[in-house]
Amino acid sequence: MKGSRIWSLIVGVVGLLYFVVPLIATAQFSVQEGPSKPFWAAYSSILADPQFWSSLRLSLFMALSAVVIGLVVIVPAAYWAFLRVPRMQSWVEFISILPFVVPPIVLVLGLVRLYGSGFGPLSDRPVMLMAAYGVVSMPYLFRSVDNGLRSMDVRALTEAALGLGASWPRVLFRVVLPNLRTALLGGAFLVFALIMGEYAISSMLGFNTFGVYMLLTGQTRAHAAAALALISFGLVWLLVGVMQAVNRGNVTIGGAR
Amino acid sequence: MSFLDIQNVQRHFGSQRAVDGVSIAVERGEFISLLGPSGSGKTTLLRIVAGFERPDSGAIVVDGENLTRTPPQRRNMGMVFQSYALFPNLTAADNVAFGLRTRHVPPTKIKPRVEELLTMVGLGEKAGRYPHQLSGGEQQRVALARALAPNPRVLLLDEPLSALDARIRVTLRAEIRRIQRTLHITTLYVTHDQEEALAMSDRVVVFNQGHAEQIGTPEDIYDRPATSFVSSFVGTTNRLVAQVADVRAGLCVIDGQKVQVTALPDGIDQGSAVDLWLRPERIHLTNHKGPDDTNQLSGTVEDAMFLGARTGMRVTINGQPVMVDVPRDPGYPNPRAGELVTIYFSTNLTATLSNAQ
Amino acid sequence: MTQVSTSKAAPPLNRATRIWTTGVWFLPFGLFAVLFLFLPSIGLFVGSVTGGAHGLTLTYFGQLFQSQYLDAYKVSVELSAATALIGAVVGVVLAWAVVGGGLPRFLRPFFLTFSGVASNFAGIPLAFAFTASLGPVGLVTLFLSHHLNLNLYQHGFSLFGFSGLVITYLYFQIPLMVLLMVPALDNMSRWGEAAMNLGASPWQFWWHIGLPILRLPLLGATLLLFGNSFGAYATAYALTSGMINLVPIVIGQELSGNVVFSPSLADALAVGMVLIMTTIFAVYLLTNRNVVRWQR
Ligand SMILES: Nc1ncnc2c1ncn2[C@@H]1O[C@H](COP(=O)(O)OP(=O)(O)OP(=O)(O)O)[C@@H](O)[C@H]1O
Ligand SMILES: [Mg+2]
């Protein structure tokens, strides 16, 4: 009993060091822009950089589109499978988690090869980026939709609403979606965390997203890059924190590798 | 000298007093239930006895041996967990054999012992099944057999039937009691189901907020509750507020009507208020009321409910509601709502406690 | 008469309506998956077996076995295996330290939140953070050389090589393992108590109960970690400036036009990745199916 406690303590402390030291080092590096400059120089230069804001806006917009696209695609299918065609449930689930098998770099390669040119709107780069992000976020959104559907009595709610004379769109927008809201929020924040730092897809498609901006900054301004890394860590913490609060302590798993 | 001695055990979690000075002396072969509301510390006490929790103070003594600092592995107590905690990777037989293997019982002796136990709980044919292939009731039986296999000195059960449906519960509780009697094994049984506790036990310990309110036979607990908590927690009961008229004679009054009781709380003064506890089924109706009759109270029927064999009535006596439960006989119709009635009850059935107000 | 005729006319109509309504609900999902997931993947496969003047050919898959590309697969697999194994072992130990009661209880929520954040903190910023700590002028590097007289870079360590990548990847692999294993380990403590009650030593418990129960979840989680690192691109690219021979990096070079080689070869490389990931995923699904059965 005593021995195991000591071991746990040692493991805990070593783990803590490994996870905290890089953050400390980054913080320390970010405040040493130069001897003549104030410690916040790196941060103020970033915040004053219009590119920082435009890239952040672009990434936020793309994350939002991915969530919207993902939901438009997944909610009706998952809902209908849950309600009427249980046979389809496992198929919807299987297809939704399939993107795990296709690494982002492979996905973007496939999209560029197939729709690179001559497919009208499908060949637009923004459409490709949104589509790719939509695919990447499918597994996470599916899981939250599925949890949401399971935790409420969809069938009874739907039938009650239909019995009161509601039309299908009304059932979907007034009954199902509002009740899915908290479950969806969890998945949405995870997708935000994932897409805010995404690099592979957007760099290949030639977008200046937040991830690409970070990399470009790192190539020229090391201290600013450290500051960006810390800002990004704070952003992820915020998103995961909100997600956890929404999901009542359940951490879901994802990330932009 | 009792066999299992729980001596003034205390356990705090932060500021929460989960177990607050409990002493229970259990005789060899006795079946004792720990009964109490949720969060009253029953599980915590059981886990202290089993050795999973350390008491802040107090001692656990079995057969004269102080086990307070003994690790759970060497206490030789069989425990049945509320969730059963059957090992999912082992068959029913291997689950039962586990405690024998850890004690290095020779394999030739393990096999017949496992068979014996599984037969005893009625699962002889299902020895090769894995826990997920068994029903809840069957899992519960395996858990019991597993706990009994190493011949534990004490059997501990933490709400073993709470996950099962009502019908199975009744069968299984009789079976547990039968096995316990056969093996004559000292048993602590945690439950929050009073019917279970009263039906199965030699003695019942009523728990409230970490301490034992009363320890006694089921009859004691039901008929002579020691505190107002016990009387309100066990069974349904009426509370009537009365004034003490004569301490020596045990006489009280409600609205000028006299009530005779067997014992008043110690140190009570004339004129102070007391609670009288009356079980609905102990109250009868009468047509004869003399002015000096004690334990007869007049009131109005507010409501009468048809309950099949009996009638449940709500009678107001001087503004105090009293539930009355009387047999129903179509030949002698019971009073209806709005009628005046007189109720009576025997003196020795009445328990009195100091007023909580 | 009328009744019969309506009942005869009705079913085909209902059936058609049913198919149509069902179709409407599943259409966006199916269309999206086909357009942006299935067709691109199939396209890659087609590209890898056609291409150039060869017609239908296995040339490009054959080229995967040339030393350069074989090496890329080898390094990718080694990197993923190393980070998956180390991450799995360390992650389980850490998770048990928290769940098994060795560490104070109040640390648990903080620890889980941190794991959630760290497992999501990857890519470019992670590379920066490790450059700031273990790069040639990183905080830890300088600390070690000033105070302990240990110059990492003179001893052959480089953050921008294989070992550096392993250390960096572990930053998201270990927390991921923790998150995957905490639920399984949480269940473990009740079996631990049952075993103790039956007189088992910790060793007996882990050997006969703990490990057999955890075997499949452990395998599943380790496979997930493998896949997690196998597809990773941004972290490796940012750390090594694209100078390490990993399959995603090689594909990226072709795609961004930095290094020009045959498009069909890139397709073949990508198909190879998908095949490996599919295998991993299939094994993962198979193992997890059994786990679910047990835990009910
Ligand atoms: N490990 C613990 N840490 C903190 N508090 C605890 C712990 N275990 C129990 N408690 C607290 O101690 C009190 C008694 O808990 P216990 O589990 O013994 O109740 P119980 O009588 O078994 O209730 P139930 O009938 O619901 O099982 C509760 O208020 C509970 O919150
Ligand atoms: Mg309990």
Description:
Chain A has 257 residues and is mainly alpha-helical. In chain A, 78% of the residues lie in helices and 0% in strands. Chain A has two domains: 1-30; 39-255, MetI-like (MetI-like fold), CATH 1.10.3720. The two termini of chain A are 39 Å apart. In chain B, helix 2 (92-102) packs across helix 3 (107-120). Chain B is of the alpha+beta class. In chain B, the strands form four sheets. In chain B, strands 6-7-8-3-9-10 form a six-stranded mixed β-sheet, sandwiched between helices. Chain B folds into two domains: 4-232, Rossmann fold, CATH 3.40.50.300; 238-353, Nucleic acid-binding proteins (OB fold (Dihydrolipoamide Acetyltransferase, E2P), Beta Barrel), CATH 2.40.50.140. Chain B is elongated, with a radius of gyration of 25 Å. With 296 residues, chain C is an all-alpha fold. Chain C has a single domain, classed as MetI-like fold, CATH 1.10.3720.10. Chain C is built from eleven helices and no strands. In chain C, helix 4 (107-120) runs antiparallel to helix 7 (162-197). Chain C is globular, with a radius of gyration of 26 Å. The model of chain C is unreliable at 1-11 and 292-296 (pLDDT under 50). The interface between A and C is large, with 92 and 89 residues. The complex binds adenosine-5'-triphosphate and magnesium ion. Residues 42-43 of chain B line the site of magnesium ion. Magnesium ion (MG) binds next to helix 1 of chain B.
- The total count of helices of chain A amounts to 11
CATH architecture of the largest domain in chain B: 3-Layer(aba) Sandwich
The helix-and-strand class of chain B reads: alpha+beta
Distance between the termini of chain A: 39 Å
Number of strands of chain B: 20
Q: Characteristics of this structure?
A:
heterotrimer, B: about 350 residues, alpha+beta, Rossmann fold, OB fold (Dihydrolipoamide Acetyltransferase, E2P), 6-stranded mixed beta sheet, 5-stranded antiparallel beta sheet, C: about 300 residues, globular, disordered N terminus, disordered C terminus, binds adenosine-5'-triphosphate, binds magnesium ion
Brief characterization of the structure:
Chain B has helices at residues 42-50, 92-102, 107-120, 136-148, 166-183, 194-200, 218-223, 228-233; strands spanning 4-13, 16-26, 31-35, 57-62, 65-66, 77-80, 154-158, 186-191, 203-208, 211-216, 238-246, 251-254, 257-260, 273-278, 284-286, 296-306, 310-317, 320-327, 340-344, 351-354.
